[in-house]
Structure prediction request, 539 residues.
Amino acid sequence: MNIKNILARGVFLLSLAVVFFACTEERKPIIPMPVTDLSVENLIPKPLKIIPTNSAFALDEFTGIYTSKNATGFEAVGTFLADKLEKKTALQLPVNDTSLNKIERVIYINQSDSTELKSTEAYQLYINQDSIIINANTAEGAFRGIQTLRQLVPETSNDTLAVHKIWPVPSGKIIDNPSFAYRGSMLDVARHFFSVEDVKKYIDILSYYKINVLHLHLSDDQGWRIEIKSWPKLTEIGGSTEVGGESGGFYTQKDYTEIVTYAAERFMTVVPEIDMPGHTNSASVSYPFLNGNGKTPKLYEGTHVGFSTFDTRKDTVYSFIDDVVREISEITPGPYFHIGGDESHVTKKNDYIYFVNKVEKIVQKYNKRMIGWDEVAIADIDSTSISQWWASEENAKKAVEKGMKVIVSPAKKAYLDMQYDTLSKHGLHWAAYIPVDTAYIWTPEGYGGIPLENILGIEAPLWSETISTIEELEYLAFPRVIGYSELSWSTPENRDWEDYKVRLANQAPFLDRMNVKYYPSPLIDWKKSKFSYETIEKD
Ligand code: ACM
Prediction:
């Protein structure tokens, strides 16, 4: 089947409908659809444009999914959609099976070269009575489009419309494109280690909200979390503990590749971070020649910062870093390598600048673009490198003067480890308390006077000093990270707290079904569902 057949079929079915409504005698049983309003659906992030047509597509067992032939990755997107819809509805929708006679309605994922598609992530979603068409330039755009479609499929079927089960999808047209290309979340697996399964679950939920970057903070004073084959003690010794003295852990390169692949299947880029020259105690315990603070290093299980540094004037330190960057870059398909660079309080300023300049060259040698926390802007770095603004507006402005791009992650607005309020079970509050409304009501566009063209995107970091389980991770991340997805995807005109908080309340059935233990903020009138948060908490 191709798009011409489908459109022809749509026209055919439309004429059938006209005949049906014009005549009194009974014809093919067209299912009467409820009146809907696509513009009030609970979509997050809010799409660029929504044009409702007030009818519905009847998703049911007679629906088939078709994708453009010879379009790279499109069939996989179709299969992903079928799998997710099966989990939600138990329907087993065939993908690209043209041999079936029973198919009456189609979801068509179409590669289009329309100039209206403004980026690789742009998509158009047309929902008609008998067809849903997703147009995108790339599989990435199609993938973003099917997340919107997933959100439009009701959690429960409407069993009054026909003798079989039907999930009515509100009809209309959606034109969508992200505001920012980089929409990230960071997870600190160094202070406490999180398993591959935990990280995959996090990726799954983030990708549902169109977040496209997972930044992994892979090393810190308390732990080294990624296997480096040429320096095995990093994980043998440096990976053996974590905050509070528990047993730590690390990803083998195979584990890391599994995470990267899982993320790539969801069009999410993994950004690996090796934090240096400070935050390096676990590396120096493993290989004491790295240490530059003159002390004999011991494993550290506390939460202080700023006491460790590499010896920035030793050539062997740079050979070590070259191996680490090379090995990680070889298994990282994404374009970025994050070198940390924050809170190097015991590194002299000149040494720090010397260090960042040298490490930037190593990162570039392995064809990666360097990202560093905002302090790196004080070095003589290249305009192609990126500064992640977490603390200092002055540093962010320096980055702009150097022509660099900035990732906006201000701790007082975007740190997921900040407590919601004084009653929060987990988290810290050194930057601020960040309730769900504060997390949402700010404008990253032009934040702190940074010109829009210098802003690569937004990232919400989750540091793990106070959390060690997936439930605790979810308590801090959700629901706030859902708001950051909207801040980074949707235009300022499409963002409104009063409107957002209703859409957020309606995420509860999805989050409950996914067993996400979000913080049930009292600011939100959470929609009850059969898998309610309270039920899961008690079990
Ligand atoms: C940071 O929070 N130290 C980047």
